[in-house]
Amino acid sequence: MGINLEINSSGQGGAALQTSMIWNEEARLAEQWGRVRARLQAEVGEVEYRTWLKQVSFGGVAGDEAVVLLPTRFLRDWVNKEYGELIASFWQAENPGVKRVEFRTGAP
Questions:
Q1: 26 falls in which pLDDT band (50, 70, 90)?
Q2: CB-based contacts of 29: which residues, under 8 Å, 6+ apart?
Q3: Distance between CA 68 and CA 81 in Å, rounded?
Q4: Could you tell me if residue 2 is inside a domain?
Q5: What is the CATH number of the domain that holds 42?
Q6: Parallel, antiparallel, or unpaired for β 100-105 and 65-70?
């Protein structure tokens, strides 16, 4: 089992462009996540945000699914139940390509 690596004959310019495009997309998604978090904080208030939502982190976007991460199963389930629809609606407002939000246990 091996890994095939194809290098295009145009040199490293294509790889640099692809890396730049990936970085730009990651930066755009990080900005969107920042706005989602700010809206959550404004919507639920500082105390509730610090208690339940501060530990929510961004796991990425794959296709039409945004992934958010929480450190424990309890917190994952609770945040999904209490705030899942709100988080999904804020994500969809920021990025219409996001159709659903997946809540997972894990670290960023």
A1: confident
A2: 58, 60, 61, 95
A3: 14
A4: no
A5: 3.30.300.180
A6: parallel
Q: Is the pTM of this model over 0.90?
A: no
4 within a domain of the structure (yes/no): no
Residue 76 lies in a domain: yes
Residue 69: both structure tokens together: 């991460």
What distance in Å separates the CA atoms of residue 20 and residue 3, rounded to the nearest whole number?
23
Indicate whether 24 pLDDT > 70.
yes
All residues at 6 or more sequence positions from 92 whose CB lies less than 8 Å from its CB, including other chains: 98, 99
State the DSSP code for 72.
S
Q: Domain residues for 34?
A: 13-105
In whole angstroms, give the CA distance from residue 24 to residue 74. Answer: 34
Read off the DSSP letter of residue 106.
Answer: S
